[in-house]
Design a protein that fits this description.
Number of helices: 10
Oligomer: single chain
Largest sheet: 3 strands, antiparallel
Order of helices and strands: HEEHEEHEHHEEHHHHH
Distance between the termini: 40 Å
Length: 214
């Protein structure tokens, strides 16, 4: 991952299923992107964990209208609330914001058309090799081979969040994930409250979808 690339943008690129040439798990992507942004803010010292709640500290240097700026404004204008609340809040908007950032940076293509009057959007990576390389690094971090302490922090955190979201592009089967529980806990340590909030948010959303929304 390039030094200039944010965790949030990298999480979006990581969600591409290159074999099917499309984004995977669109319903969960907003949770993953907000969790990645929260992780960025926490690791940079802009936020702190206060008994399981996010507390604003210092404002980040963020472009107006970016997801990082939006999330910071929401948290700084609110009393401390649970990480899970901030993972879930306006998650659909998060996808649109990061999509537009990546499109403006010419990292992705966005094609829009209508099928039977319904708008359809197709998003593809302009540089598929970046998503492939990122998936390889994150997948290796999850599977092991290199001590967690020697991993680059961005790869470590992406691996933790991808596992929490059960991102199919990099996460092994659920059975394998359970067998690697100790390693996943080590990966998640720097952002543990966010990873937990993301996992519970995705589980709740999938359970609601399986029951027909009720």
């Amino acid at each position: 991952m390039k030094q200039s690339e944010s965790l949030t943008r990298s999480a979006f690129l990581l969600a591409f299923d290159l074999r099917k040439e499309k984004l995977t798990q669109r319903g969960d992507l907003g949770y993953l992107l907000r969790a990645a942004t929260l992780a960025e803010l926490l690791l940079a010292g802009n936020l702190a964990d206060e008994s399981g709640k996010a507390r604003a500290l210092t404002a980040p240097a963020a472009e107006l209208g970016s997801l990082r700026a939006v999330v910071w404004e929401q948290i700084s204008n609110s009393p401390p609330r649970s990480w899970r609340r901030w993972v879930q809040k306006h998650n659909g908007k998060a996808v649109r914001l990061v999509r537009d950032e990546l499109a403006a940076a010419r990292m992705i293509n966005v094609e829009r058309r209508r099928i039977l009057l319904f708008p359809v959007e197709r998003i593809t990576p302009r540089k598929a090799y970046l998503s492939r390389r990122l998936a390889e690094r994150v997948g290796q971090a999850i599977r092991g081979g290199q001590p967690v302490g020697l991993l680059d922090e961005d790869v470590r955190v992406l691996a933790a969040l991808a596992t929490a979201a059960r991102l199919k592009t990099v996460v092994p089967s659920w059975r394998e994930t359970r067998l690697r529980r100790d390693r996943i806990q080590q990966l998640s340590a720097p952002v543990e409250p966010i990873a937990t909030a993301l996992r519970k948010s995705v589980e709740q959303a999938r359970a609601a979808a399986a029951s027909g929304g009720g």
